[in-house]
């Protein structure tokens, strides 16, 4: 009976940390859990991250970005001991909750976060369609205006007609290099 009661108290909680220290908090907390023998009360520590695509030096790069900077998720059973261990981990400023009582995160929110974290390849989000007027934000044609003539959603590429020397010239660009006007 005691085991069943304990499992019902197992929830995900949100820790507030100093921004930029999320990974350090995760590492420190995992070490403290192991060294203090808290594996039966603190089960999981996650820094929620998702993959994003960025353009750097004209190259497409996939980076991992924190979904909630300054926050770490902990799956645990809150007791005086486990609360103390987590709360006194370096760079942890506290739990999200009312006063000193941490409030658990709903199961639906955890599932949504895990699905965002689980995707291996970020999807290309192309917010333009053929005929849209756009401004080129990056690359050799930066600051030029043009009109979208083709969209390749599978590759994240668009063809933009740019007026050069009095005629429309097709320029292939990454969807991240343009902005809709």
Strand-helix topology:
Layout: H1 2-8, E1 10-17, H2 22-35, E2 42-46, E3 49-56, E4 59-66, E5 71-77, H3 80-87, E6 92-95, E7 97-98, E8 101-102, H4 107-118, E9 133-136, E10 145-152, E11 157-164, E12 167-174, E13 178-180
Antiparallel strand pairs: 1-5, 1-6, 2-5, 3-4, 7-8, 9-10, 9-13, 10-11, 11-12
Account of the protein in words:
The protein is elongated and about 75 Å long. Residues 1-5 have low confidence and may be disordered. Helix content is 23%, strand content 41%. It is of the alpha+beta class and 181 residues long. The protein has helices at 2-8, 22-35, 80-87, 107-118, and strands at 10-17, 42-46, 49-56, 59-66, 71-77, 92-95, 97-98, 101-102, 133-136, 145-152, 157-164, 167-174, 178-180. The longest helix is centred in the first third of the chain and has 14 residues, at 22-35. The protein has four helices and 13 strands. The chain has a five-stranded antiparallel sheet with strand order 12-11-10-9-13, with no helix packed on it. Strands 2-5-1-6 form a four-stranded antiparallel sheet.
- Give, in spatial order, the strands making up the sheet with the most strands: 12-11-10-9-13
Mean pLDDT: 87
The end-to-end span amounts to: 63 Å
By helix and strand content, what is the structural category? alpha+beta
Residue windows where pLDDT falls under 50 for at least 5 positions: 1-5
Strand content: 35-45%
Residue share in helix: 10-25%
Characterize the largest beta sheet: strand count, sense, and whether it forms a barrel: 5 strands, antiparallel
* Global Rg: 24 Å
Instruction: Report the order of strands and helices.
Output: HEHEEEEHEEEHEEEEE
What's the total number of strands?
A: 13
Shape: elongated
Helix segment count? 4
């Amino acid at each position: 009976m005691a085991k069943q009661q304990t499992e019902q108290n197992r929830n995900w909680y949100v820790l507030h940390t100093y921004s930029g220290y999320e990974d350090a908090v995760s590492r420190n907390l995992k070490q403290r859990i192991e060294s203090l023998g808290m594996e039966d009360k603190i089960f999981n520590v996650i820094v929620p991250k998702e993959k994003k695509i960025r353009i750097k030096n004209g190259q497409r790069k996939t980076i991992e970005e924190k979904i909630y900077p300054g926050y770490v998720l902990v799956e645990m059973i809150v007791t005086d001991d486990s609360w103390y261990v987590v709360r006194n981990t370096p760079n942890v400023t506290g739990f999200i909750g009312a006063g000193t009582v941490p409030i658990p995160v709903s199961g639906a929110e955890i599932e949504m976060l895990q699905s965002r974290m689980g995707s291996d390849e970020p999807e290309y989000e192309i917010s333009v369609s053929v005929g849209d007027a756009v401004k080129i934000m990056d690359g050799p044609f930066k600051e030029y205006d043009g009109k979208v003539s083709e969209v390749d959603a599978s590759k994240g590429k668009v063809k933009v007609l740019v007026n050069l020397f009095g005629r429309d010239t097709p320029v292939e660009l990454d969807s991240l290099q343009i902005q809709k006007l």
